[in-house]
Write a structure and sequence with these properties.
The complex is a heterodimer of chains A (310) and B (331). With 310 residues, chain A is an all-alpha fold. Chain A is built from 12 helices and no strands. Chain A starts with a helix and ends in a 6-residue tail after the last helix. In chain B, helix 3 packs antiparallel against helix 4 and helix 6 runs antiparallel to helix 7. In chain B, a hairpin with a 4-residue loop joins strand 1 and strand 2. The chains are: A mainly alpha (310), B mainly alpha (331).
Amino acid sequence: MTSKDVNTTDTDFAIEGHGDISVGVHGAGASGDGSASATRITPGNALRPEDIALEIQRGQVRPSEDVAEFALRIGDDGLILAQRLGHWISRAPELEEDIALGNIALDQLGHARSFLTYAGAAWDKSEDDLAYFRREHEFRSAHLFEQPNGDFAVTIARQFIVSFYQYELYTKLIESTDATIAAISAKAVKEVDYHRDHSAQWVLRLAGGTDESRARIIQGFKLVWPYVDELFEDDELTTRLAEAGVTVQPSSLRAEFDRLTGEIMAEAELEIPGVPQALGGGRRGKHSEFLGYILAEMQVLAREHPGASW
Amino acid sequence: MASQNLQSVPAELSPEEQEREAAGQAYFDRIISEDSRIEPRDWMPAAYRKTLLRQISQHAHSEIIGMQPEANWITRAPSLKRKSILMAKVQDEAGHGLYLYSAAETLGQSRDQMMEDLIAGKARYSSIFNYPTISWADMGAIGWLVDGAAICNQVPLCRASYGPYGRAMVRICKEESFHQRQGFEILLELSNGTPEQKQMAQDAVNRWYAPSLMMFGPPDDDSPNSKQSMAWNIKRFSNDELRSRFVGMMVEQVRVLGLTLPDKDIRFNEETKKWEHGPLDWNEFKEVLAGRGPCNSQRVERRREAHENGAWVREAAVAYARKQAQKENAA
């Protein structure tokens, strides 16, 4: 991987170039923590979509059709969730949660950009071609990710399921025989670990807080739990990729997911909702009514100016 | 509670109290004359505390309300990279709000109280956030002009005599300079894009130019509080001085952008060595400040809605923390 070299240069740039066109705040004061800004690239572990795009351009990486299809699935999961979570920014219950949910949205978007950039290489498409110029049935995200934010409890219930699922998935993908998938996942898993902690703490707080918060988190889980099974469904693509060691069968992640979420649910004295599982179909491009509206909003400006650069 | 200082000064002081007051005032005067820093536990004049509390809380409110016009474009950002940068930027603003509320809390007022005042329409925030963001190019113009003006205002505040404020500003200014750069980059990209994109950029600059100049506050001869703030080393340069500097910077940068500023009267005065600009509509400024801007009620309503919708969450967190503490005590 050459991305390490690229990172070093960019890290220097991010730090040195900070005061650029403004009025000399560069280096102002020694009190600032170097990693204080979310807009900064963290030195050392930054694998950016731009680095992947560069490797693609140089012909160093190119996914097979199967790998690209798989990257599209997990990339779309992150993208659609980021789109949902982004709506919370300026609307959260506390400023700290504006920041936390914004951070999670940013992480998800970052993972999505990397996976989509990589997937696009199979079809000579950019991350933006894929995000802005595909139609509903061409998206491969699972239904859970497009579920509405609801109140804070619904968002937390959704995030709790997502982050425990993603943690299991990315942990396994670090071992992927596909080096790019492994590298993206190695970065993602550290971030998703924090998402797990954030959502688990809120599940405990809401369940053990007031009567109202407890009722709301119970209702929140009831609303999103029907979309759990879809995450762990195997199909022909995952079977082929599991044989090739690119990924594992989603069903193999279920036991650990159940165990870890079960521990938190038990501590919170919450029951796993006894709700029927929805049919799903997101991985085959069959979506709920929600996705159309998400895409309409996300894509409107880009589609008004096809071919424009931003 | 220090906040009591704001409401009333006891009519009669005992001799000991008088002595303490005099010693406090002497210490304060010395710190100011040495251009050093006042810290939260130091004695300070009630009016100094009040001025700072007003300024810092208004600044915090501006960051929080200022999230809204930009959050308006997060879901529609035209590329994933821009979406990511915009999200990070709006998130930074929430962070700035937090540091500033914390700095204000050291003066004796709680964040809850400040938030109540904002929602009740009792507190002010920067008037510019009452204008709508109607195109993507507004993200560029806000970064370049609005954050640019904010930086001009705020860099001198890094040396403000009140320690917590000055230190918060150091951190904020670093991030603001990044914000300005990203705004400039958005406009540069649009300006070098399709004719429609360039038009979008010019239109945004046209709309945000005058309001951003007015961010520095009224002209010096109509700014009653400035003189005292400068004597206290809170403010270092006058409104007009900062405005003139800002115009000078923008004149240079707009050329690089390949756009124009909507002001035919901009010139460098060789005698005063200062940049001058055309007349500003201070009547509009006052109207917007008085609540008659395009988005005033919308902005406060959004904040109220978020705050009230979140009440049950905050209550749950408090109740949970209390129960946990009880468990620990029992154990």
